[in-house]
Amino acid sequence: MSDSVTTLPQRSSRSGSGRGDAHKASPRSDRARADWRKRFEIAILSGPAIVMFLAFVIFPVFMAAYYGFFRWKGFGVPTNFIGFQNYVAIFNDPNFREALMHNGFILVMSLVMQGPAAVAFALLLNQNIRGRSLIRVLIFVPYVISEVIVGTGWGLMLQYTGAVNDMLTNMGLGAFAHDWIADPNIAIWTLMVIISWKYIGFAVILMLAGIQGIPEELYEAAAIDGASYWQIQRWITLPLLGPTIRVWAFLSIIGSLQLFDLVYIIWGQYVASTAGTSTMATYMVREGRLAGNYGFGNAVAVVIFVISLAIALTYQRLVLRRDTAGALTEAPGKKQN
Amino acid sequence: MSQVALTGRATTSRRRSTTSKSGASWGSPTTYLVATVLISICMAPVLYIIIGGFRSNSQITVNPSGWPDPWVLTNYTSVLTSSLFWQQFGNSMISAVSTTVAAVALALMASFVIARYSFAGRNAMYALFAAGLMFPMTVAITPLYLLVKNLGLTNNLLGVILPQIAFALPTTVIILVPFLAAIPKELEEAASIDGASRLGFFFRMVLPLSLPGVITTGILVFIGAWNGYLLPLFILNDSKQYTLPLGVQSFSSEHSVDTAAVLAFTSLSMIPALVFFSIFERRIVGGLTGAVKG
What we know:
The complex is a heterodimer of chains A (337) and B (294). Chain A is mostly helical and 337 residues long.
């Protein structure tokens, strides 16, 4: 998946060119008609997807960029062009800067909290044991249920009079009871716990899939050479799991920058800076749609997009590039064996 | 005959993950300990929601973290007999199923073109969909809302379904292309010698052979659509049109005093995604393996 994000998987390009050769070689009396037919097939098969994609993804994104230059309440055609004023206002708003800080915090903490834990769990669970399928289903459950359910359930549990504080009191740890959600000093940590809980299963499953992609022969060779279990994990599994870890980190980073649902559901009524958990996306919805300033909301959307894109491109350049290079230079030889 | 050989090959690549049926053994106690710890962390809040639905409000108030004593069924029965729940359940079903079918069908056709045809715009087409991963719904939501409004589809499930299909396309295409590209070209040549057109090849060979990828993406799309929140929040504004996530939220704010009922409503609304996922769990891991290997 790593290389497929940036370039076509090279297996397909190989088969593509190979098939092209076969096409040329095959005797065709009327090449022109065949070409026309091919173009027709391409149009019929890919047309619907491309039209849908352009209409409902690309077009709205460009419209967001356009609306962002207007002071506009969402009625009729925007006329009050104000240039970059919305953008100036966004970066001068301390509430936005705070939201941006929260996104940064969530981004870093997600990587730090989930990454090592996910790799460790995946290594320990990567065994051909009984009940493996059940274990996987149960680990994946938090990822499968919706943000609304997660928010509602955790919201009730973490109330001051909720189950978590009650359990702490019962265990004699009543001193640790907090108002987990309403206290702005710890709310963001509460959010981090909920996020980690929701997404760790996905990370573990992804890592397990990555580990299974490592050729069995390497383990056999290492075992013959007398490597210990830990040596094998350190020198074979971890390096070869690198691409998977980097793809996971990429998905996690993008997710952190766009985080909306959980925060909006749990803290919805306080999303202003008072709750201490506002993100760029909740800021956008609050200042844009709820306040009726559609032009401003779109400008915030553009800022979120540009920040995400910049980080994503930098990440692809600095980190994912290594995987692509490796895939192109080494993989074919490996696959031949 | 080549088909037999190929299906054999396709299953061997997957065999490593499925041998557990025959060759599973009892692992070390440490493994089970780790698994138990992780599972309890993952399941405790879910069980809290489900079991909490079997308690009464006074039980919850007196002892928030306790066990049901006695078990109360009325929360669940009153949700299950409310027409609003079933209405919203039906809306979610319609939205998720039609999004899944349409998105996977469209993506499969487009991926087939990208993986198996050589033509000038091929790389550009792939890049277009890959770039879509960078365009999350959050960014496009306001213009999307205006677009849906101009199409006259606000407060209409179709206004949710159409954008959902479009936003599901990038991931689906990215996962499906490697699957379709992995089908050996010899097979296509054999099919064409046997007189099958490329479209015939698509329906007779590609569809069955890419089934693991189709199922994986299908599950991802279904779960994404079933759980979707932001889009329905903008598009739907009448509780009769709500999908379940919005239903859960409005129920829990309307019945904020009736915690037990909220818990029952919440746990019933997560069942379909869970059932759907657990049926196909093995496929999803296999599909992700294929995608990660690229």
